[in-house]
Amino acid sequence: MKKTIFEKIILREIPANIHFENKDVIVIDDINPTAPIHILIIPKKRINTLNDLTDEDTNLVGKLFQIAKDMAKKFNINESGYRTVFNCNNDGGQSVDHIHLHLIGGRLLNWPPG
Ligand code: 5GP
After folding, report:
1. Terminus-to-terminus CA distance in the chain, angstroms?
2. Is residue 51 within 8 Å of residue 92, measured between CB atoms?
């Protein structure tokens, strides 16, 4: 399977602004931010889409949200508010086939999204 852009970042084959990393997860700035804070919380395990989650991924997905919460505090948007999003497949706007949780904030976000 061809490496995703995120696997290349995890392997340091391409650069990224890394905010946090542990054995399971890496957190980077989105290269094309849609808000003052737009970071990506990415599991190191390659899971193509949310449709591919299995029972063994339950803890991992929970950790992504725990890290999102911590990052929201670190970037001081925990009180003002923020959004966490997983996009899935074409209609959901997924462009990288490696699940990742977007953390977006630092401005008033529109709802519903387009
Ligand atoms: P998706 O559209 O799949 O939900 O989100 C993929 C995100 O990855 C997009 O917001 C896009 O801007 C970001 N992205 C794509 N390529 C790169 C890259 O090379 N580096 C970083 N840091 N982000 C990327």
Report:
1. 32
2. no
In contact, 87 and 94? CB cutoff 8 Å: yes
Q: What's this model's pTM, rounded to 2 decimal places?
A: 0.98
The number of C-alpha atoms within 13 Å of 62 and in the hemisphere containing its C-beta is 5
Condensed to tens digits (0 to 9), the pLDDT of residues 2-16 reads 999 999 999 999 999
Interatomic CA distance for residues 72 and 93, integer angstroms:
23
Tens-place pLDDT, residues 69-100? 999 999 999 999 999 999 999 999 999 999 99
**Phi and psi dihedrals of 18, rounded to 5?**
-95, 125
- How far does the centroid of ligand 1 lie from the alpha carbon of residue 5, in Å? 8
Q: How far is the CA of 70 from the centre of ligand 1 (A)?
A: 21
Q: Return the residue whose CA atom lies nearest to atom 1 of ligand 1.
A: 94
19 in active site: no
